Each structure stands twice: as C-alpha cells, then as structure tokens.
Inverse folding.
C-alpha cells in the first residue's frame, strides 16, 4: 500500500512530465463518476484538484484491491499513477488510491489559496479595528469576530466562486486591500466618516462565509443561493447588535445600509442604492479593487499562456468581455523595437 | 372660542358649497408655512386634510387671538372659516383655529382609510393563520402578531405611499385579498405548498409597518428609505424565529426567501429572484392584486371626474402610463347607442 | 423482411439495454443525412424519434437490400437494429429498415404527447363554452370550433416548440388549465367579465395551429415565422365574426384586443399592452401557468437525472436561467437528516 | 345676427391685431367647458381652431340671445368677437356666436392641412399602382381603393396625431414621398422586388384611416388605441384578399408581413421583425422619411420663432430630444461673418 | 447718471431686503427681451446675474433717457433700482441702467466661481507636471499649457454646464482634486503607471475649454454640441504631439485612449471602453470625485434651504434622482435627541 | 524541391477531392503551432488560407529537409501535400513546404477579395469627388487621397473583420455603393447638401485603413482597438485640413461631425448623435447598405449550403439573429408547386 508522504508534486508540475512517468501525491477529489467503456467495462472518472489546478483521472480497474472502495467527493486521497495525454488533454492513469489519514495532508494545499500570509493579513484587519475612534463600531466588530468559527471562516473564505479573488483567503485579501484604499480615500475627502467607511469595508462581504462553501472546490450553498450574502451579512450584524445594549439605533441603520447598498445598483442585487457618502465611496472602492484584481489576473494568465508582451489579452469576463492591454509591457516592447 | 363638535363636514363636501359660505370642522394639518403678501404682510399658508381629501387654507391674520399660536404639522385642529375659489382652485379662509383636545376628533377620520371593516379583515387574517396545517409556520405567525404594537400597526398601515391601496388599512386589505387569491391558486396547482404560500402572503409586506409612517399624511421613514420594507420584514421574522427554539433551519430559509424575492426582479428591489414555486406564485398574485386595484381606482377616478362611460381613462402611472377602458361600461354604452 | 408489429419498445427503454442487444420497433425519422467514413465509405446518419425521446442511428450498409431505398424525414419506419454506446452516447446500429405501412403504427406514438386524456380535456373546453352567459361569445366560439379541421388541430397542437407544454395536446392541456384558473380568478375579482376572460383563454393561442407544424418534430411554419400566432389567431377570429351578422362591433374589438395583448409587453411580441381588466388578467394567468409548468418540468427532469431531492435544478431557460428548488423535496430531505 | 361670409380671417392673423380689435370669422369648436368666475358667475371657455392654429375664447354672457344655445365640440361656428391678451396669452372675447349653416364654411379650412395639391398626390399614388408589373398586387391595391369611403379617408388622414405629417392629407403626402424614395432604392438594389416594396409603401399605414379620427382635431379612436393601425391595416388587406379568388397564398403572407414588420422592432409595436429584403427596406425608408420631415419641421419652427440662422433648434421630441442644426443656414451665416 | 462704484451688493443679499428698498450695483445681462403689457405698453424683461445667483428685472420705461439704448446679453451693466416681490418671486424694478465702463467691474464677480484660490490650484497642477518622471509626458503637458490662451481658459472653465463643479474655475478645481486622489490610488496599486494616470487626469476634460463658453452664463458652443469635449481634447493633444518629434507612437496611443475612454461606457459618450489599467482607474476616480462633489453640493443646498439636519435631501439629479442623507448631521442630531 | 508554379488549386476545390489525392499550391499561413502527439512526438499544426477559404494542415515530420525551418504566420508558402478527412473535417497532410519567392504568388489570391473590378470602383470614387461643387470639400478629399499609401490602403481594406463586406476591397465596394445611394437620396430631399453627404460617405469609414490589418487574415490593430476607426478617421481629416489654409472652420466642424456621428447611437460607438440632416441621412444609408449586403450574403450562403429555395436562412448574426427569407426564390418555388 501507499505510504504516507507530504505533498511534493503539484498538478501544475505535471505539465512538464514525460508521457507515462509515474509519481504519487495527495489530491482533493472534486468529482467522482461511474462510467462504462464502449466494451461495457466499468471504470471511474475522477477530477482531482490541488491548489495549483485540477486534472482528470481514470481508474480503469476499480475492483483492484489497491484502489479504496470507500471514498467520495470532498475526500483527500493519496494517489499513485502515471501521466498521459489524450487529444492534447492531460490525464492521470490511477494505479493505487487510498484515503489520506487525518493530518497526513494539509487542506490548504488542496485548493487555490492566497499567496499572501494570512496571519499578517489578519493582523492588518485587527489593526484597522483597533484604530477606530468610534467605540460603538469598534465594539460591534470586536464582538462579531470574537466568534471563533466565524473568524476562521473569514480567514478561509474565497471572495467569489469564479471572478475576482476566487481562492482561499481571497475574501480577507480583498478586504485588507480595501482597508488601505479606504484610508487613502477617507483622507482625501473630509466629508467622509472614516470609521463608518472602515466598518463597511470589513462587513460588506461577511455574508460570503455562509453564501459560499469551499470544502470541495468553491460553490454556493443552498442558503447562499436563496438568501444571498447581503442578507446573510445583514443578519449576522443585526444579531450581534441585538446583543449590544445601547448600540445607537441610527448607527445600526447606517451600518446595515452600507452592507445593503454596496453593490451600487438594484440590478446587481443591492436592494438599496447608496444614499450616504460612505456607502457611495464603499461601492466605488469595492468595485475598483475587484476590477484591478481582475486586470492583474488577466495579465498573469496571458503571461502564463505565453502571449507576447504587446498583445491584447483574451476577452475578460469580469470586465464585460473587453480585452485589456498591459501598459507597462506594451511600452517596454515598443522601446525594444 | 370654538366649541368641540364631532366632525360632520368633510373636504369632499366643500366642492358643493357656495362662494363664501361659512362652516366649522376638524382637520389634520398637513403643511404649515409662514409667507408674506406683496405688501409685506405676514400670513399663514396651510394644507388641511381629512379622509376625503385635502385643501389649501389661508390665515390672513395670524396675530388674531382667535388663532392658536402653537400648532404644527401633524396636529388635529378645529377650524372656523369660509369657502372660496381662486383661479378655479378651492381654498379655505380661516377665521378661527385651535388645536383639538384629546378625544375630540378621531384620527381615522383625518386620513384616507379603507372602506372595509378592519375588524372583519383582521378576523379573516387570523382565520388564515388558524387554518395552517404546518405547526411551525402557525407558531411563527402567532408569535409575531402577538406583539400588540406590531399588530396595531399592521391594521393601520397603508400598503403604499402613493400607488395602490394608499390608505389606512390598505396593507391589511391587500393582504386579505391576497389570502383569498392564494387559496384559489394553491387549490389549482397541487405543486404548491399552501401553508408556505399563505405565510408568504401575510409576511411579504410586513416591513411596511416601519418603512412608512402615517401620522401626518403618508411618508417614508428615514429607516424605511435606507433599509426598505423587505429588509425590515426579514429582520422582524429573523428575530421572531430566533425566539422559537427548534424552528427548522430549512423552513426559515424558505420563509425569508419568500419575503426577499416577492418583487420578482432585481431591478424592482428584490435582491433574489423567486426560486421556489411558492415564491413565484406569490410574486404573481401580489402583482396582479396591486394592478387590479390600480385598475379599479382608475375607473373610480374617471367616474368621479365625469368621464363618459365609454372613454379611456387618463394615463395610469402604476400601469406604465397606459390608458385603460372599462369593459363593462363600454359595452353597456355601446348597447345604448 | 420485417413483419408488422405494434410498437412495444420505446426509446426511453433503450437506456436500460445491454450493449449489443437486438430489438425492432417503429420510429419517426427526424433527420436523414448522407455521410462518409474516414475511409470514404458512405453511410446514413439518422435521428429517430418516438414519444419518449430521440436517438441517433447509423446505417452502415445503405446498399443492403434489407434497407429501404426510399424513405425520408417525416416517414414512420420499422427498424431492426441493436443498441450500442459511443463515448457515453447511445446509438442504434440499423440492420433492417422499411417504411411503415399505413395504419401499422400510430402517429401519436411517435412524438411526445400529453399524458392527459385528450377527449376529457376537449370535453372540459366544450363545457366552458357551454357555460358562457354571453350569447355572442358562445356563438363565436361554437362557430369557430365547428370547423373540424381546426378543431382537430386544436386538439393536437403543442403549446410551443421548445419551452412549456412542448408536446402533442400541449395547447389544449394549457388552455384547460387556464380555464380552471380563469374561473377562480374571475370569482375573486367582481370587476372582471368572466365570459370575456374565458373567451380570451380559449382564443389567445389559437393561431398556434398554423404557426407550428408537428408532422416531423415540432417546428415553425414559414407563415408562422413571418406572421406569428397572434396575427394568425386574430385573422381566424375576424373571419369567423365576419360570418356572424349582428356580432357587436365593440365586443369584436375587445375579443381581438385580448388576443393582441396577451403577451403583455411590446418586446414579447404583443403589438398592444393590455388595456382592459380581462386582458390584464389573461396576461397574468397565461404567464403564471406557463411558468408553473416550466417549474414542474424542471423538477421532473432533475428527478429523471437522479439529482438529490435537496439540490437546486440546473438553470432553467424558460425562467431567465435561474435555478429552482423543490420546496417539498427539500423540506422532506431536511426532515430525514 | 351674424351674416354668412367666407372665412377670410385666420387664427395666425390675430397675432398681428391690436388689443381690442373686432372681427368675425368661422372656426371649429375644439373644446367647450362650463366655468364660473370667482364671483360665481357662469361663463363658457372655448378652444377654437382653424387650419392655421388654435386660440382660447371666452363667452362671458352665455345667456345673451346672440349666443347660440346648442353647439358643441366638433361644430363649425361663426363668431363675432374681439382680440385681447392676458398674461402674454392671446384670447378672443366672444360677442356673438352661431352654428355655421351647411356649406357655409369649408371643413378643410378648419384643421391644419397639407400645403400640397391632394389631387395631384392622389394621381401620383394611382400612377404607382398603374406601374406595377405584378397583376395580383395591382388587383389588390385597385380593389382596396375602389372603396370610395376608404379612398376618401386615405386622402384626408393625417399621418400621425402629433409627430410627423400631423395634418390633413399628411398620410398621403408621406406615402407619395415614400413612393419616390422606394423607386430610387429599388433601382439601386436589384435584390429588391420593386412591386412588393411599392405595395408595402401604399399599405403600411393604411390602418391609420381608422386608428385616427380628425373631425375635431386629431385624436385616436378607441378601436385605434385597442387594436392599432398595424392590425387594422392587416385586416383591411386580409378581407380584400378574401374577395380575390386565386390570390397566391405566399404573396398574401408577404404583403401582410410588410405591414406587420414595418416599425422594425418589437418595442416599436411591430409584432415581427422584417425578414424579407423588401420589409427591411420599407422600415428604413419609412423611418428616414418621417425623420427628414421632423427635421424640416424643426427648422421651420425655429425660423418662425425667430431663431438666428446659426443656432441649434430646441430639443426635437421625434428625434430623441436631440437638437438640430441647419447645415445650409449655418454655413451661410458663417460666410457672412 | 450713475457713478461708477465697485460692486458691493450681490443678488444673494437682495433676499433680505425690504420691499421697495433702492440700491445700485453691477450685474451681467443674461437675457433681454422686448415685451408688451396687457395695455400694449412696451417694456423690457431682463435676467440679471452675478456670482451669487440671478434675478428677474423689469424696465417699465425703456424710453427714459436714464436707460441706455444700446446694451445686450453678455454686457455688464450698472443698475439703479428697487427690490420687490411678485407672487413670492423676487424682482428688480430698474430706474437707471448704463453699460459698465471697461475695468469698472470684475467679470469674475459676475458668474459663480470657485471659492478656492485659482493661483494656488494652478500651482498644484504645475507641481504635478513637474513631478513626472516620464520626460515625454512632461514635455507634452508643458507644450500644451504653454499656449497662454489655452492656459487661461483652463483656469477659467467650469467643469460642466449644470451638474458638478458648474462654476468658473470648476474644471481646475476638479482636476486638482483628482490629482490628489490619483496619487493616492497609484500608490496603492503598483500595477498602475502613475505618470500616465496623472497625464490622463490633466487632459481628460481639457476639451471643455472649447465645448463650453462662459461669457454670458454657462452654455455649450455649437462646436461643443457637434463634436464634444472628448473629440476636442483629443485634437488638442494630437496637434501638440504632432509638434513634438520623437514622441513615441505607443505612448501617443495610450494618452489618446485615456481621453477617449474616460466616461467608461459607450452610452455615456466614450467611443471606447477603458482597456488599460490607468484608463480604468481614471474612469473610477473621475466618477467618484464628481459624485462626491454632487453629494457635498446637495448637503449645502439642503442646509441653505433650512432642511433639518436629519432629513433626507431632495432628489439629486446627478445621482439618478436618489435622495441623500448626511451621515455626520444625522448622527449628531440623533445624539441630541 | 518544389518548383514555382502559379496558383491553380484553391481551398474551395479541395472539398471535391478524393481521400488521399496529392496536389501542390500556394497558401497564406494564418496560424502556426508546435504540438506533440500522444506518444510525445512533435508536429506542426497550421491553418492555411487563400481567397476561397481556409483549411487545417498537419506537418507530421517537421524535421524533414523538405520542410522549411523558417516560416511564420503571414508568410505565403508553397505546399505539396494530400487531402484527407478526420471526423468529417477536411485536412491537408503536408509533405513538402517552402516559402514563396517574392513575386511567385499574388497576395490578392490569398485572402477573400471583392468580385468587383477595383480600378473601376476607384474611378467611380474619383468621379464623385470630381463632381463636387464645393471647392473646399473637393480640395480636402483630393489632398487626403493624394497620399499614395493611404489611397492604396483605401483600395485594399475590408469594410469589416467579420460582418458585411469582410473581404479585400470591401471598404471601397461599400463606399461606391453608398455614393450611388447618396446621390439618389440627395436628389429626393432638397433639404440635403449633396456635397457634404458625398464627403461624409467617402470619409466615414476611412479610419478602417488603420483600425484593421489584412496581412494575415483580417484583424484589428492594437491602435484600432484602443482608438477605433472613428477617431482615426477624424484625425486623418483634422491633419489634412490643418494643411489647407483658409478651410472654413464651420465646414470643418460639419465634416468631423459626419464621421463622429455616423454610427447613429452612442451605444454603437458614436460619441455624438447625428444633428444635421446630412449626418442623419448618412447614418441611414450606411446602415441600410450594410444590411442589404448581409441579406445578400445570407442568401448566397444558404444557396451554397444547398438550402431549398423556399426555406428560411439560418439565423443571421448581423441582423440580430433573425432568419431571412428570399422573396424572389420563395415566390418562384410557390409558383412551381
């Protein structure tokens, strides 16, 4: 049987392998289907993932004793197999497979995750809370994140299923970037109540901890689909405030309004338009940060795919299907001409 | 000074008065403004209302001892004055004015109110709750309406500020009409869970008790403008459920989804589209009932304004500015030709 | 040669067959194409259908004397063949094929058809006409459906090519459901002229008998594409009324308006918005019934495809690509947890 | 009493009159209302029109024996009165008024009318019909316009209530302009069937003869509002074709499609998009001709209102509220600088 | 005749005047019309403006020798008159009027103007140009603003005719605010080329110097209406670059793209969407700054109009007709309760 | 090695070839990619094009000395190979390949090109310029096209990458068709300044000479994507006018407005709506001509694909996905029935 070893081969590495080369490593099972060949022989079709990507895998002999009987979508498994290509598509032929023992492999290795240091990001978030002058808002945020399960989820959650920051820790990474931007913008416009803006930044997407689930890839929960992260976030805040006697009624209304209106338009799912300066500013910086990240990702993807520095990217879904051009690369390439 | 008497003259009656005829009655002060004449003499410009309409009034001698010093928007006042017309516009010239003593006049006489018997409507609502087979839903509705202040507001609230059912008791009248329609539709489609649909009907607009205020005419509260009745209603239900241990989590999600999605489209302020059959049905019957009421009102208005039975109405705001035709009147008029 | 036998094997049954199992049955030819293999050998590629679905079929030896020379799209054929799978796609290998003799197979077996008893549905429709108090409307409907060819088409027509009620008898099934709903809604709103509403229900889609054709699958006729079922229906009614001396001019206008406006919006192909209460109500119940049927079909499809009771369905085309959840199944599954 | 005389004073002439100058002339009564003065004295408020415009008029002594008792909206009346201004608004003070005797005044003098010779326009229309090579289309048009009442209405009808060609004879003037344009465009694109295009031009707006009424100003009929000129036009053609045995079924479909699709978009009230080249061309030239006329009218209005030659016009309603500039006038003014 | 004196009475002061009080001051003539009274006497109707507002004025005796014969829209005039009110509308009765001699009055006093020090703003702009590392961009901006007429116009131009920053110096004030914001945002996103962003900020609205004219109130030029400030700005830049040999072709394309795309959407008049990160950022900060200024103005207007600190503002045109709430005022008022 | 021979085999011819038949001919390399087989053997995947279409090609032995080492996208190559089919897709197996010597093959043979005589089209364009009465406009056009590089590009450019007139010479063909149409329309509407309209026709799309590039298939340039042909065209005209002293300023504004507004709507990329009659007319005829060409192409495609004369075409992308019907073919087919 396969011995337990720490993961040292990632899916991104396989692209460089020769046809047929054997290896073993841990993966997350993303899908598992029973199928039959043309000659009616049953086999298993799997999709395996880790933090660098995903790949199809085939178990041609599911009855082999070296293949575990009991494993399912969401399990981490140890696989021994070899690499092949079918019609330009990479594939793993699985020879041995067993479930990972508890502690043998790290869940964070199994899904795409932020490249940033999560503890450092978290410390920045805590620092922002600490910096608030408004005692009520500081108390609200402190009380909310005192729930350790919620805090853990906040550290882990992706910011989206597919678009920007779609990786573990993405929510936190996005929020911390926004905190920096919010401080800059609040300093520029004296009209803005900086504490309320910071509070809005920290709370606007908090409902994503229950709207999304990231045990087996990134997906929406049924509750998430039926209620949405705006409503879930509002409820988390309402219930926390209910436990804070003396929290000013007007401040409660403003905080909730920040969450409700942060998508900026009814047709984007906000039931209210921003009607206070801080809500208006939050909507702008949230949108700008998401788009700057989408731009960054589009350039990285183009570079990974070997596009010339002075080509336009493919059409970017998160930016209304427009193509983008990297100013810096294009100018640099122009200078070389 | 003016003696207290029950209101027996209504604004709608004044249209029939001769120029200059004197009268006295109770009214609600809807607006009060200081103005000056061309010759720089100060006077008061008022708008007075009662349940049959509203009318402008002028106090040409605000210093006269028979005119109360202290009264404001929202007060009920006893007025002695006379009726006049200025450029085809009816007006009251006020000779005496004092604040009504408590109990002297009935608030319900001062704003437009349902023509239906509110106690009977309330009994129908209670009967619907009683009829529910699902014990959890029955418990939820019972607990919520056990709050007497809330129940009182539910009985009084208009259904809207301006469009359909914009009168005291309008919310209740609309809900009771919907309960009848919901029973008919649920009986037609076995797919529908009748109890969930009925619950949705009773709760969908409950947030209007705080979104609107009707002390001095109908208006939105600041909280109502910033949060909206959908969010307010969801919060009322969330907090009631929080007090009901054992309320099934999934049922809670569905009830909340009914409220969140009942406007049917994002651009109408629902952050979620209806995704369960009952939410879809609720959106349809709510919309149909509001539109049928708008049709009815348009016909009544046309008839009040002396339109011929076979003319089209004016453009109806609540129906995308289209004109309407009364089938029955038009055919009847055709038969007479 | 193949002997004639009644159809006892349906396409839906084939899914359960072992690879290679032989069978014979009648099918409708939905498409027929000449192709060549890589090695340049000609073969026939067919799509065969019956009321349970459709399947690809290959005739590898089109020159074989057991394969009829003369057959075409739209013919019913008797096929002897065997079942196979190619890349998970079911396929029939055809060994023998001949055209069905007249009377050998029932056309109604060859296309998806209503599960309801068409005679019973028709009787309900006739009962509704019988129930009308308005003699002119009763006369109009009776005269129109006295045309036996039209009546036959009304019984057979699908309600749509693809969306809701896309099966033989679908139009009638949809209309009969609407008649029940119309009676309930008319009883709820005294404002409505029940006879006009019922007439609108029966006539609103009657133009589909010429807009669609269902000889070889469901498709639009050229006339249907150029004129549309609204215009075709209006013309059928106009010409019937032209043969009814004394039919009131105003009633004619209202009936035509019901048909013209039933899609409710210009951008949905209605050249006029509903402007009478009955047209408004017809638009609502027509839309609701179509959507409730789409919901029902989505749940049935999910169940056929083995989705868990508490999963969301796939995105539903007829409901703006939203996903749906079956209230009853989800709650049931929740109770089992 | 007023003697009968031919109309020699027009509303447009009054602008030049001195305050108080007396005159008499024939006018069409466009509205008639009973009112009372502030001092409660009854008077009549009229709007009088003729082909050059309209003006308000007051009858201060409706009981005077020189004022006819019996007259109404739609009547032509002989008025003796004097001219005055009230807050910059012109007004007629009426001293005597009687109904015109039959034949005393010409209806065509009473409403805005084309400046073109209607007989000449009609001859051009007839010439176009005569020029058709397709015998069926020629027969259809000839049969339709053989109905003398219809032909009379076709000669009189405005093309619209308010926008382009809103004057008597406007429909005919618009159609004749289109016939010229159609011939030019058909000559340019050999793909086009000129006869079908010409037929479409003549028939596309024919339903306006019943959609509009022009007895007392320009207005929509109830039938027009409920059915629309597209449907009315289609019905006129359908019934004419029904009386032409042997008219080719396909040609009928194409002619009807031309009418149905001529607005070019669903949201403009066409239930079908143009799907044949002639329908596409008709939509373009119809739209272009209406817009060129709107441009022309905007320039004429600006010139009437004394705008400088090189100013932009006011916002033009028929052109999405854009402002226009007269190329020729602007360049000319530039040359003078 | 009126002696020359510096302006010491402003239109905003008149509101506090008693009826009939005499005064004299300088004003800009915004409109001048010949009119006649009811009794046919000619008079002049003027609109006079200065930097604090505008007011109607009447010259009842235009033939009086103390009234100048020759003056026109756009002239600065010295007026002696008295203040009155007509139907609550303030008005000036003019007794004497003469054209101001050159130098007697300051044009900047006559139109609303920025409250900021224009020289200081200009110095900030120059400082930003000085700070650029990219020599080509620095050269471009320097060359462009070396045109003294253009530089003068840049200092004077309003940023809009009506919406945000609609006052003299508004363009410069808006640009300087953006420069501060751009530096903050560029520091936050290393992806951004700060020099290109700063250049875009300075150039994006430069075409407004010819799109608008501000001699007699704020209006569009004909060229501005036909070409728009985007095209005018692009042309200014193109022609400046044409005079800079060796300016890199790619950099030219990027600078032009910044201007072309800064409205962010085709329907807002940008012929191109932002496709480089700097253009995306420019669109966001430009929009945010305009909206923050609109918010500020709405709060100032509400405060001027005496709205309570905790009321919503009127609907704000520049923010899709939404109402706004001042966070700080509302919370403060809440604390006082 | 392959000897040089004129191209006599076109891609369109290959469809009729037997499997495996050898041939040699010149082609343009449209794409070139390195790939590996499943067994890890490298090969080249090419797309080859000529004026009749494009086809995939495989070089299985890229190391073979008969295969050139150095060739790239955009090169014309001489290929010897054989024809095959893989899953119904045509393919060329390449045995020998070398770059074409200069002059050996005609570039115009390599891309789809107009069927019209380019010299004759150009003469028509020159004739239109010659016919202008306005000396300034004639001078402008003459000066612009005196640039031989620009004139060459104008003759070669396609009118679009994909939609209408997407072939070499397509721009010129489209413009010449428009010139004919413009003359007809200008003759019909005396309001129009024919010279300005003609100038607009010639200049409206001139920016496409730099927006598109057609060396290796049709594609957008980066400048084209960032600036667009409207801006590029305006710049060409601005700079030409800058070299024509005395060109009237107003005429310049009008010419530029014609180019800027010719797409007719902001959302189609025109930053200004047409505001002069000539711009309005240009927008209409440009749109009509493009659509008539799309109709023509759709009919030709349907006929090439063997559609029956009386079928509807496939959905046409350039016409909002609608299907089209050929009037003439459908009627002809109807007559045969």
């Amino acid at each position: 049987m396969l011995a337990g070893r720490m993961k040292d081969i990632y899916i991104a590495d396989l692209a460089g392998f020769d046809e047929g080369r054997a290896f073993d490593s841990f993966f997350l099972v993303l899908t598992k289907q029973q199928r039959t060949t043309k000659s009616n022989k049953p086999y298993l079709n799997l999709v395996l993932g880790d933090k660098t990507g995903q790949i199809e895998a085939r178990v041609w002999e599911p009855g082999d004793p070296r293949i575990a009987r009991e494993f399912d979508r969401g399990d981490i498994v140890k696989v021994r197999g070899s690499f092949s290509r079918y019609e330009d598509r990479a594939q793993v032929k699985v020879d041995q497979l067993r479930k990972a023992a508890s502690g043998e492999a790290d869940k964070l290795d199994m899904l795409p995750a932020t490249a940033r240091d999560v503890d450092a990001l978290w410390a920045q978030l805590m620092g922002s809370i600490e910096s608030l002058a408004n005692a009520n808002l500081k108390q609200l945020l402190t009380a909310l994140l005192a729930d350790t399960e919620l805090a853990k989820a906040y550290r882990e959650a992706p910011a989206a299923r597919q678009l920007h920051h779609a990786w573990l820790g993405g929510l936190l990474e996005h929020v911390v970037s926004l905190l920096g931007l919010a401080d800059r913008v609040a300093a520029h416009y004296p009209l803005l109540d900086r504490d309320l803006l910071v509070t809005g930044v920290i709370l606007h997407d908090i409902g994503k901890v229950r709207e999304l689930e990231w045990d087996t890839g990134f997906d929406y929960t049924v509750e998430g689909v039926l209620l949405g992260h705006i409503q879930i976030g509002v409820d988390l805040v309402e219930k926390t405030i209910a436990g804070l006697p003396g929290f000013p009624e007007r401040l409660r209304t403003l905080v909730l309004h920040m969450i409700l209106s942060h998508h900026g338009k009814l047709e984007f799912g906000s039931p209210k338009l921003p009607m206070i300066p801080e809500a208006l500013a939050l909507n702008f910086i949230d949108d700008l940060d998401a788009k700057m990240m989408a731009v960054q990702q589009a350039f990285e993807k183009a570079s990974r795919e070997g596009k010339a520095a002075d080509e336009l990217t493919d059409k970017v879904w998160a930016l209304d299907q427009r193509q983008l051009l990297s100013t810096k690369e294009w100018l640099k390439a122009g200078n070389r001409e």
Summary: The interface with chain B takes residues 18-19, 84-88, 310-312, 323, 325, 330 of chain E (CB under 8 Å).
